[in-house]
Amino acid sequence: MPAPDIPTIDISALLDPNASQPDKQQVAVALLRAFTVYGVFYITSPTHPVFSTAKTHDILEAAQRLFALDTEDKAHIPKIKPGGFTRGYVPIGGESGSTTKELKEGFSYGYEWSEQDAEAKKHSFNGLQGPNSWPAPETVVRLDRGQPGSFKGALDEFYLNVCDIAAGLLKGISLALDLPESELSKYCSSSETISFMRLFHYLPYADAKHASQIGSSAHTDWGFLTLILSPSKTVGLQLFHENEWHDVPSVENTLVINGGDYLSLLTGGKFISPLHRVVSNGQEERYSMCCFYYPDYDAKIPLLVQEEFKGQAASGNYSLLRDQRSEEDKESSNGDEDARSVATRLLNGETNFGDYIVSKWTQVYRKGGAY
Question: pLDDT tens digits, residue range 201-250?
Fold first, then answer.
């Protein structure tokens, strides 16, 4: 079967406050097709800095420097902890959405609170808010390579730029669903403080069948929107479409967009949350940067489409509805509520988005991940 013709959409009109309504509507039409046919697509804009070759080089170089640190330096980076708040280093084997070992390491960070704000809010942070967990100060100095503040600065700038892109996409998605342009934005007033970025370094492996080892297990994304920069030319990201796996190659000066499970359910399955994975060709390492963009922690978004559930929503084929705890954690649980029941309460407005997504991150945490 031929590879799917994954579209590239210029979203400039969604980022321009002076854009005409017809121009924004044209982008919305393209988004509607992309979400309903594939659930994954590329976006670009010549007017936004995140889509420049220079900015891509900056963030890729910063990620490469970070993951090139030796074992001792990495051991002093705070690791992610159970509980759902994911900041810090993700060691190899430190997470998995399945029983397969994922040969990747990562670094998770998000909104950079000032010391004063972090101290003032430390007792009122929700489960997705909190300070970042950076490498030791002397390590950061080496990562700066003679330009003080450049390492953290590059990561922070990239994160805020991608959040800005996501905020623009919300307008187009609202229009695509025949809703007011600001409809989804009203549920995302503090999104940048709870969303986060993950830098990933995928290691090559020799298991051609991806049975015992894989870069990232086949999954759908639980949340709202995922925005991915794939600067490595090495193919790794794959989309499951029409019962086959297809490569999603890197395209210069674009971001890859995945619709999430929550967004798909809110549209009654009209928008696809694509099944995807990351594999290795057995020879080359690979880097990517993934932003998980969320609505507000306390968001309880009503159904966006008043139609009967169909397709993916009717079948329930979402990672959101799967129990992704390790077998050990399942055995030690004391009758915890299953994922599908919690998701039902989420859609019924009986629980908020933040509490649910924290529970999902807790499920994929794996004890004993190695450096």
Answer: 999 887 666 667 888 989 999 899 999 999 988 889 999 999 999 999 99
